[in-house]
Amino acid sequence: MSRKIGEPGDGFAAGSSRVTSAVRPLPGLAGARTQPEWIDVTVMPREEPKAARGRTPPRPPPLSRAEVQRAGLAESARFHESFMRWLEAHHLLGSVRSVSEPGSLPMLHLRCAPRVLDQLRRAPEFEAGAMMPVDLY
Length: 137
Hints:
Strand order of the largest sheet: 2-3-1-4
Number of helices: 2
Low-confidence stretches: 12-17
Number of strands: 4
Mean pLDDT: 79
Helix content: 10-25%
Strand content: 15-25%
Shape: elongated
Radius of gyration: 25 Å
């Protein structure tokens, strides 16, 4: 007569305190993963939703392209600095391999451990997501 899983004596009973692992690593792979698996992540500041307004205020005069570029570069540099301070405050610098330089948009690309992406997704000030790897053969 065969036993069902979960019955006493099958090793999987709920009260069983004995845990055994029958899975062994493949030969040659023992200790192969000493470094974390690095992933590519894009991070941007989270935008606050705009409140509904009754009347729209008058628009300021349009800026020149050079002024828009300067403003974008300054905003991106501020975001880069605040992001680096955030990484340091959360003790994640050791889990980040590289961070892109600030550009004309407040967006950064980084190569990091998956735990950094988890922390970024929980942070209310950031929007973050993993980039899909593209393997070209």
